[in-house]
Amino acid sequence: MRHEFDVVVVGGGLVGLSVALALENAGFRLALVESQPPPPIPQDDSWDHRVYAISPGTASFLDALRAWQGLPPERVTRVDAMEIHGDDDTARLEFSAYNAGLRELAFIVENRLLQQQLWRAMDDSTVRACCPASCAALELGPQEATLWLSDRTELVARLVIGADGNDSWVRAQAGIAMKPVDYGQLGVVANFTCELPHGGVAFQWFRRDGVLALLPLAGNRVAMVWSLLKERAERLLALSQHALAAEVVEASRGRLGALGAITAPVAFPLRLQRVARLARPRVALVGDAAHNVHPLAGQGVNLGFRDARELAATLATRDGRYDCGDHALLRRYERARAEDVALIELTTHGLQKLFNNDVVWLAGARNAGLKLVNLQPQLKNILIRQAVG
Q1: In this structure, is residue 359 part of a structural domain?
Q2: Is residue 357 in some structural domain?
Q3: pLDDT tens series, the chain, 389 aa
Q4: Is 69 exposed, middle or buried (CB count within 10 Å of its CB: 0-12, 13-18, 19+)?
Q5: Is there a contact between 248 and 212 (Cβ–Cβ < 8 Å)?
Q6: 307 domain-assigned
Q7: Distance in angstroms (rounded) separating the CA atoms of residues 81 and 105
Q8: Does 130 lie in the same domain as 24?
Q9: CB–CB of 348/294 below 8 Å?
């Protein structure tokens, strides 16, 4: 069966759903292909082990897609400040929403809840959801792209958007090269109760064995993201929940008092991925299909949402000279995203190399750098403005 659309989005994760909804708002006819069914609605009060720090700019974008206002307010936590610690007891960098003239620095939201809200918005849209469905073949022609699903359904569109993650099938089919840098690390995530109130503060410790972050959740709860070398991470994963909590207390210097495990730890591999290009005729990439960065800055998902926002805005401004898959139009998107993506890649990669390094003189330099930035309010406000967009 042959079906025609303006755009077909491959990938029904957070970024794929958002770009489909944004393009539907702009009047395009769309289909979305996703291999997994939507996540089930939890029947208890359990917490998702994976959370995101959503910037205010991303929250505004999601609100325009009808996917923000439905989040249960008791499960969304505002980040009012950040404390960043070096690998000695004196280096510290602080950010404050109040001092920067902002209402908040970010919102901590569970992945599962955000996915559910985006799927609910999809249910109220005109986007045709092929889910669950798998892709079989992609042909890119001069005037259109044809995507065949495994059940022989034929989707024809002016543009195919790859939002299908790190190991993007669309990227491979389009022949877009990707250069990975394996950090040899795992990101270990888990949730804890904490003895002392977090006060809406996100904490981060740059340690010689990795980067530990504790992000505020509702009540006296925190979400942990600990980036560690694989051997060390695997040892943590083998610990009992009580022993793991004790390790986190020690690594965080008891900043939040005693911790109690809420969820068992899980881990995911960390790597930097740079792609040769974000677009070619009839194909555009967004989210993890377009780039993948170290989570130490908490900007990975926001970077993907900014891709979705920019691509939708670029396609909405096309005129009669271009259709939505024309390479000249897609190059505008690519150029518009170049600076933001390069800055986040450079920052996260540089920090990862700087702090995961045993060179003696670097320890003093990196801790001195944190102290110096902390004394520069104007510079701190510039960094905050970049992060909240």
Answers
A1: no
A2: no
A3: 899 999 999 999 999 999 999 999 999 999 999 999 988 877 677 889 899 999 999 999 999 999 999 999 999 999 999 999 887 777 888 889 988 888 999 999 999 999 999 999 999 999 999 999 999 999 999 999 999 999 999 999 999 999 999 999 999 999 999 999 999 999 999 999 999 999 999 999 988 788 999 999 999 999 999 999 999 999 999 999 999 999 999 999 999 999 999 999 999 999 999 999 999 999 999 999 999 998 877 788 999 999 999 999 999 988 777 899 999 999 999 999 999 999 888 888 877 776 666 655 565 666 676 666 666 777 666 677 777 77
A4: exposed
A5: yes
A6: yes
A7: 7
A8: yes
A9: yes
172 is in which domain, residue-wise?
2-46+116-180+272-352
Do 84 and 173 lie in one domain? The reply is: no
Do the beta carbons of residue 99 and residue 377 sit within 8 Å?
Answer: yes
What is the number of domains present in the chain?
2
CATH number of the domain residue 107 falls in: 3.30.9.10
Model-level pTM greater than 0.90?
A: yes
Residue 198 lies in a domain: yes
DSSP state, 125? S
Whether residues 108 and 190 fall in one domain: yes
Distance CA 327, CA 190 (A): 43
Residue 141 belongs to domain with CATH number: 3.50.50.60
Residue 259 and residue 149 share a domain: no
Residues 253 and 363: their CA atoms lie apart, in Å, by 19
- Residues counted in the chain: 389
User: Which of these, 204, 207, 186, lies nearest to 94 by C-alpha position?
Assistant: 204
